[in-house]
TrEMBL record:
Enzyme Commission code: 4.2.1.20
Record domain Tryptophan synthase beta chain-like PALP: where: 77-415
Function according to Swiss-Prot or TrEMBL: The beta subunit is responsible for the synthesis of L-tryptophan from indole and L-serine.
Protein name: tryptophan synthase
Amino acid sequence: MERTKFQLDESQIPSTWYNIAADLPGAPMAPALNPATGKPLTRDEMGATMPEPIIDQELSTERDIEIPEAVRQLYTQWRPSPLYRARRLEQALGTPARIYYKYEGVAPSGSHKPNTGIPQAYYNKQAGKTGLITETGAGQWGSATALSAALFGLTAKVFMVKVSFQQKPYRRALMESYGATCIPSPSPETAVGRAILAKNPDSPGSLGIATSEALETAATDPSLGYVLGSAANHVLLHQTVIGQEALLQMELAGDYPDVIVGCSGGGSNLAGLTFPFIGAQLRGGPAVRVLAVEPAACPTLTRGTIAYDYADTGRLGPLFRMHTLGHEFMPPPVHAGGLRAHGIGPLVSRAVEDKLIEPIAVGQTGCFEAGVQFARTEGILPAPESTHAIRSAIDEALRCRAEGVGRTILFGLSGHGHFDLVAYDKYFAGTLEDDVVNEEQLDIAAASIPKPAGATS
């Protein structure tokens, strides 16, 4: 029988997280800034939302950072996650390409997000917090936070982008099953939410707004630890267990990727899969072409500006140097809610600047078309976010067919789509549309990007 699944033993779960900041060429990473002073954040300022070990990780330039044993033990619930050879998809496409996918939907909450949820809950528990507070887009991060809080005996409160709250009711039910409270954002619970609702009672919400609501709540309750699911250095760090396992699994397959594809929102899944391979390349290993695939309706990398900007709409947090559409950008209500972010992780932005990652924007209906083809050949219904990676992986495989070249393609299947059947229903009914943004919308949002004193673009 042809081998389709490549699995590791629990003893092969990585013992360290990989930090790409140690291997990036050129100048050090630009620091986050205090918006009031325009100066780099101090450790004391970071301590308002981060436990000491996470501050260390956020600032570290060490290549390997030890994973606590308690975290590794909880990882064994679903890690190592499987790597599959997509043989039936290859056959359906008639391509000479070899297609592999790393499947993170085996985690209890259905996506890659617990890879960072577990350590963040662990460090906040150690810091004496009794609960967690966060924001979520599609609900995958909210579900992971709820799960992680339950495993450490903590409460959890999640502000969920309103349009996703309405589109994905069973994500809310899952969070509540783990014991969390889920609130549609913008909400009347915070000053930020009330101000936005006063201007637009029908606001669909955004990750930036939900982030502001979570930060405001955390600032008023010292018993709550603020946790975040993407973009930050430490979050991307935690996700590198994905790529480290994939390196070993590609060895089991006797293969190595020529192309690696990941969906791109805040950057956590993309970085988790690709950074270990990029790091190997930077240290003299094989070259890889890395594709970051984002929605055309929220084109942060392909049409955004590299600048210092807020990660949240209410401007309660620090400034980060990143690709941004402007913190007031309101993305269309595409179903890939986890990719509706106006900004992206600074480490991902840097990798794009250094031409280590190539960004691509794709339309929603083409992604669902690819997701359905994948489900009908490989049997797994992908999350809308993951269909972006599938779309580009299929396009690369078809290019191989056209060129008669058998390249190896690896993509990240970041989660399953069992809570996204409303979106698939709309696709089958022909009512799912390709939302677009025009230059006027982008120009208006870009005008919100600040120009802090002392900051360089």
